[in-house]
Design goal:
Elements lengths: L1 H9 L3 H13 L2 E2 H8 L3 H13 L3 E6 L2 E6 L1 H13 L2
Antiparallel strand pairs: 1-3, 2-3
Amino acid sequence: MRNQSAGFHALSEPIRLQIIELLQGGGELCVSDIGNALGIPQSKLSFHLKTLNQCGLVTTRRNGRRIYYKLNIAQFSQLEEYLSQVQ
């Protein structure tokens, strides 16, 4: 239940939804790519990416000094399954 709560909380912020939509089409992106695409400063973006990562909606991969983000489809599937059981 805690994972679902954190996931839904993360989805309540419009900037995080923009990040998710961008990652849907862009696959794996680094912070600077996401910031450039959305016009959001890196300092503000880092907070939102941290939130998405902590609740498991995105995963990270480090390559040198850059961290790349991509969607964790398994976590989205868990949220979808939870919602399908609510009637």
